[in-house]
Fold each of these.
Amino acid sequence: MKEAMKRKIREFALDLGVDDVGFAAASDYDSPLTPALDSIFPQAKTLIVMAYREASHCESENMRIAMSGRMGTMEFMESCNYRLSRYLERECKVKAMTTPASYPANVSPEAKFGLIADFSHRHAAIAAGLGNWGRHNLVIHPTLGARVLFSTVLSDIELPSDAQVSGELCNHCDLCVKNCQGGALDAEGKTEQMKCMAHSQPYGIGANIRFWTRFVDSTAEEQKKMMRSPEYMRLYQASFIGYQYHCFKCYSVCPVGQ
């Protein structure tokens, strides 16, 4: 009965255009930094994790092209999350709750100003048998490689976890380490997030704070120039588009699955 339900849900998600689907019992989800599932959805018993291959936009040196591709992927992921949750509640008569694919994020000091998410899709993917860790601390999928993103729907339906991926998928070529221009992967098993963010999100909150700090200390004439500067225009665009990534090297250089 439970396997038949998993097949039914998997077929629906795959028909949406998702590349792969995995199931994890809530008890198998182990993310050491993110909040407990009980604080999000106390009745959660199963995590339904969907995998999406990142297209070749991540190879472009034009970061507007690369970021546009990522934004399109994120919109598709959010749509699939929403449609699956509706399907579960309407057709399967169970409770379902989507989780953010990226932002909104908890930007309080307790969450390191957005660095600790409310939910970890990477840890959910591991629990759902959709891959294992690479040297770049990304999840490597058995067929999709490292160019893969994940979204998750929580449900109170009780389903068993899928089998874990056996065997290591990372070939330890260290191309991700050598190509990380922020030096964020030097220590194995750890991503130094501030080094990553400073390089990959040059127009994020840190740059915004620095700009406005300079602005309030500037003369009226200097302020006029600042408001017409390329720096301000990029910050302005980032403020309504959202987090803009300017580096995809850990995805694009990984040879696994290409």
Note: The longest strand covers residues 46-53.
Amino acid sequence: MAEKSTRTARGTIICDNTTMALLKANDYVAEAIRREMDRRGVLLINLTSSPGSGKTTLLQETGKRLKDVLRIKVLVGDLETERDAERLREAGIQAWQIVTGGICHLEGQMIMQALENISLDDTDVLIIENVGNLVCPASFDLGEDYRVTLLASTEGDDKPKKYPRMFFTSDLMLISKSDLLPHLPFSVDRAIQDARDINPDIECMTVSALTGEGMDAWCRWLVDRFEQKRRSKKPEESYDVE
């Protein structure tokens, strides 16, 4: 089994009892999803960021580069419209849109419902493109193996310490839109240092889906994590998602 990514301190979130019950219920569903992905040997990635940080563009380019290497499918979360899923389909990636109708994050039960409508038999990697938000998605485990968070150069380098829970629960930080760095007051070193002050284990890469900078490293990271997941797959294990 691949090492679980979301290191949230379950049960320590300061909230009222109703919210606590919701998070505990979500954890139960997330664990069922994780077991099913482990049984199938499917790598599950939870991709998070602020709105407009380049998640969909990154996935478009990732799909093009890995189309002959990995069978990738994507679940896209947005408050409204199917635009991002359409963009991914145009790039040749099988994608399904989850419309939350105003909810600012995806939850385990949403992913469970979506999985009822897709086949994972021909899937190596399932990527969840979460709703653009650095706050709410940080608290919801979706059963992922790894959480990857984009920090765009256009956002400013101070985000890791302003939104610490997201970076604490992430395994990889991608500093996106690196092609704009020469034109912006963004310090890559400062952003990485702040992220590692919060989470010493977080990996960091700088990427540009437009120029291709860092894309080879990112794609290699995905392939390596998938191969690790498949090596750890135990055929004798059987879990029921229901």
Note: Confidence is low (pLDDT under 50) at residues 9-18, 236-242.
